[in-house]
Amino acid sequence: MSWPHLVALGVGAIVGTGILTLIGVGADKAGPAVLISFLIAGFVCACAALAYAEMATMIPASGSAYTYSYVVIGQAVAWVIGWSLILEYSLVVSAVAVGWSGYAAPLLHASAGIPMALMQGPYAGGVVNLPAVFIIAVIAGMLIVGMRKSAAANAILVLLKLAALAVFVFVALPHFDTANLEPFSPFGFAKTMGPDGVERGIMAAAAIIFSAFYGFDAIATAAEETKNPKRDLAIGIMGSMLACAAIYTVIAAVALGATPFTRFANSPEPLALILRELEQPGAAHFLALSAVIALPTVILAFFYGQSRIFFVMARDRLLPKGLAHVSRNGAPVRTTMFTVLIVGTIAAFFPLDEIVALANAGTLVAFSAVALCMLIMRRRAPEAPRGFRTPAAWLVGPVAIAGCVYLFASLPQQTQIWFLIWNVVGIALYALFGSRHGLAGAGPQVQEAAA
């Protein structure tokens, strides 16, 4: 792949569930001040993206934060980061599939008469979310065919998704009313528990919609399938972040100004709902249909990253080496099919907000590790060749780490407990298998890239 494919991969991963579905979850937690939540989450992600861009050009090998941690810090820490990345990518794929189903289910119910009970999990009064499982299986098939063909289709779908968002702005902007932004911050800044038992506040919202901005890290997992990684990875990471920051600012502001946030808070299809509230059913139908067609670009990007993390960890013998097998066209079929089983089960039965919160926990740990690796390499090898150098690294790195720690503290307490349990299981697996079978050093591709 070249840098246009990588930018499309990044934009496809970033612009998706965060703005199409999570804006409703964020508005429920922060009200109109969710705009501030977007800015905070975006700023922390931008700092992390700068660190990623430098590390990706120094170590252009698949594995993202896992590989950087392996090379810079060591195997044990790399396992923890890889285990966190597995959590992140698995849950994001599941979350986006659930978000996709939120737009697809009403269309399928109206056109084909499929019972809603078969398109919603038990949390919503249904039985199983079959559309979410279906779209995961379709994307897995695309990845097995081969990533370059999938990347070309991904670029087309990204353009469709951006066109749908442009239609939303065109239709909703004339209805912008500043009165809809008052009171601007009804739940305050810090995370607080409401009388209904829901944690709210600007930071509580930022900790959830943080996932609206990440996705650029999926680009780093494509290092070994990139034509000129030392140049193209930095362009892909920073280009996609800048494009998405501008898109999010416009969409969120228009959505909150066009309709009182209470009308679309926690809706599974908030932007389409806003258009229906504005008596624009045709535009709402177009946006919902576009989301159904284009949201799979997000699943594609993260599913790609998940299968590559499994592949690299298996190549380093931290997971069973059979998972590192690739097909004739270079696709890791076994890891892809194994991932289908995991993410499909999660998407079938669990709600969006809980999935996203736990995914964010894994991401925040990985982002902190990348920023730390960047700082260590600045001290250890300040003159080493870098295709991209982070400006003001000794400011950007600590800000990224501190921001990630604060966002982690702002996650729901239940999420933090589940994340602790996940890592206890991970450490046990490492002690039983990874520490005994893992290579003494990183795999040959990683060693060559690091050199």
UniProtKB/TrEMBL annotation:
Example of a GO cellular component annotation carried by this entry: membrane
Transmembrane segments: 6-26, 33-53, 65-86, 91-111, 123-145, 152-173, 202-223, 235-262, 282-305, 331-350, 356-376, 388-409, 415-433
A GO molecular-function annotation: amino acid transmembrane transporter activity
Keyword Membrane: yes
Annotated keywords: Membrane, Transmembrane, Transmembrane helix, Transport
Record's bilayer topology term: Multi-pass membrane protein
Top-rank taxon, per record: Bacteria
Compartment annotation: Membrane
Protein name: Amino acid permease
Annotated organism of origin: Allosphingosinicella humi
